[in-house]
Amino acid sequence: MVEGLQARGWVRLDGFLSETDARELSAESVEAWESGEFRKAGVGRGEQRVIREDIRRDHVLWLEPGTAGPAAQRYLAKLEELRSAINRSLFLGLFDFEGHFAVYPPGAFYKAHLDRHRGTADRVVTAILYLNDGWVPADGGRLKLWTEPGSQEGPAEWVEPKLGTLVVFLAGDHWHEVEMASRTRMSVTGWFRVRGA
Ligand SMILES: O=C(O)CCC(=O)C(=O)O
Ligand SMILES: [Fe+2]
């Protein structure tokens, strides 16, 4: 994975989590969703955060290492290993991870964007894990990831949000969007960050 990230700036891995682990994580997300713990995702950060349903319609629940369920804790531990592996090979100096569960109800989408807030550079690497069992092409909801840095044209990779699939890419380089899904689409999205950039 680290080699792929180094060579191309993005990488996709099916089966990053075993089916059992991914199902358990998915169950934790469903439980939190059903007990109303998610909120509508915003655009921008801090005081600038606003709800923009023309841009994104997902709902999120931030993962707090202290209170996350056992499957989420295990996933965070795996990401911690990935973070050190990336640092050892790419010298990116990633110091932590922040992430959230995301739910896209039927009809939801997220228009093309870069994962970086205006005027900041702390989110360096994006990691998205999908939690959808039995996803089929007719369900839509693919991630479109433009493969050329900085470009919102040209070649793109389409990723179906299948249970256990992980996508990792350089957050400031790769434009991406989520096409509309016709069934509920669940994932964990997060970012490895550098300090104070
Ligand atoms: O779920 C996905 O495929 C992408 C989500 C995304 O781009 C984001 O939350 O910033
Ligand atoms: Fe994104």
TrEMBL record:
<keyword id="KW-0479">Metal-binding</keyword>
<keyword id="KW-0560">Oxidoreductase</keyword>
<keyword id="KW-0847">Vitamin C</keyword>
<keyword id="KW-0408">Iron</keyword>
<feature type="domain" description="Fe2OG dioxygenase">
    <location>
        <begin position="90"/>
        <end position="194"/>
    </location>
</feature>
<dbReference type="InterPro" id="IPR005123">
    <property type="entry name" value="Oxoglu/Fe-dep_dioxygenase_dom"/>
</dbReference>
<dbReference type="InterPro" id="IPR044862">
    <property type="entry name" value="Pro_4_hyd_alph_FE2OG_OXY"/>
</dbReference>
<dbReference type="InterPro" id="IPR006620">
    <property type="entry name" value="Pro_4_hyd_alph"/>
</dbReference>
<protein>
    <submittedName>
        <fullName>2OG-Fe(II) oxygenase</fullName>
    </submittedName>
</protein>
<dbReference type="InterPro" id="IPR051559">
    <property type="entry name" value="HIF_prolyl_hydroxylases"/>
</dbReference>
<dbReference type="Pfam" id="PF13640">
    <property type="entry name" value="2OG-FeII_Oxy_3"/>
</dbReference>
<keyword id="KW-0223">Dioxygenase</keyword>
